[in-house]
Amino acid sequence: MYDYGEILEGRDGIRKTWLAGRLGAFTGFVASAYHVALYSPETYLEGLTRIAKSTVTMATLGAVFAASSCISAELRDAPEDPMNYFIGGCASGMMIGARTNSFLIGTSSCIGLGALGAFSKFARQQNWSFLVHPQK
To answer: Which Gene Ontology BP terms does the record give (predicted)?
Structure first.
């Protein structure tokens, strides 16, 4: 089974979208479970609604990121360009803006997530290490 990073850019976009959506759903579920545990809902239905809303939102953001970056890589014919990840992050940011009905949040999320995506792609290309393990 391939990891998200092992699949070449611009190839197998459906598989990358599935993997990113699944990771987003897991992240949204864990974060919303903590939120429900810390801020107890009044009813079980309210807690379930909170969990479902966060899980679906994060799954959508992951899938939109993967699909947008893959489509961008194919259309631009530049599979290893960090701009593809910027475009994917920007598309996810626009989804956050649509979810909150706020142009300001959408614009700032677009720029922030796009920059984060491009930076992460560039860091992976340069083999940067952020977690340095101690030597024995």
So the answer is: mitochondrial electron transport, NADH to ubiquinone
